[in-house]
Amino acid sequence: MTFQKLFVFLSVVSLFLSDSAFAQLGGGRIVRVDEEAQSRCIDPYKDKLWLTLRSLVISKNSQFLTKDKEVSIIIKAKVQTDPVPQVPIVYPLMASAKIGEGPAGQYSIPIEYSIVSGLVLKQDSVVYSGIGADITLVNVKDRSGWGTALQTLDSITSGSKLPIPSSPYTQAASYLISFANSAVQKDIDAQNSDNKAVAGSMQFNFDPNGQCAGDFEQTGTKALIYAQGDTTSGGYVPLNEIEKRCFSAQFLPSFVLKSAPRPVSGDCRTVQAGQFQSVANNYLAFYLNKQTITKTLGANNLATRDMKESLMRCKANGVSDKKCLQ
Q1: Residue span of the signal peptide, if any (predicted)?
Q2: DSSP E strands: which ranges in 121-267?
Q3: CB 3.0 to 4.6 Å from 187: which of 52, 122, 149, 211, for a disulfide?
Q4: Are strands 106-120 and 100-101 parallel, antiparallel or unpaired?
């Protein structure tokens, strides 16, 4: 079965993974983690992009979430384009992970999934202006109860961790033809509410001017922090106080987001390591890499700079040079 035929079926699955099927988290705030690699503006007219989910931390409030248990992670990858497509472009992906212990009152789930891998953001007349993802956890204790649709999605994508295709806009026409399979909806509805939980949703928009003035996305290791979490913990960060905090992370062996009060000087580099506490909010951890595309032969200073910084960021996150920019 070819990659394209697989996604014809998977897109049908995506149609019926509706937001109404699961309890939703409130809106989150993206924070940048201090790291050695410098942050760069993502230019949709000049760059190609990598988006990798690192891990997620979620409260222990779902019955099926227990330490060392396997969980399936359904990722609905969404693409924004100019021109705007006639129907939303959504690609369903799935991965499996083992639940680990997180900060008090939370679980940590390593994902390590490259949702976007080297996507050229300008392809002929199409410009990819944004990328998003909705992430849902599903109990895998009894896969036989999933029905054919979820079982097929699991068998196709869970082990291989396929990214979205290299030309999402032009390939979507062939992927999104068939929506008639109502059995998929029954598949989702058949899952008990205690066997599924939404982990989060994120959206990244790219500055068409390549300057990142305002709320446009840049490269870096980041976390999307939600209001949900252990509000009684000293590590809990109210979303309206994020600007008053500095953020760092323990990258290995597992990702742990940490925060500390921002000093009066505003310089987070002066904060001592012992002042940081593990963040008690729910959050998604991820990193964005990019590389400037050059049409000239020979070395290009910007492309070389981007590659060095991407390799540095991957190394910090435990990813080898070979796998970093695949």
Answers
A1: 1-23
A2: 122-123, 126-139, 196-205, 220-229, 245-250, 256-261
A3: 149
A4: antiparallel
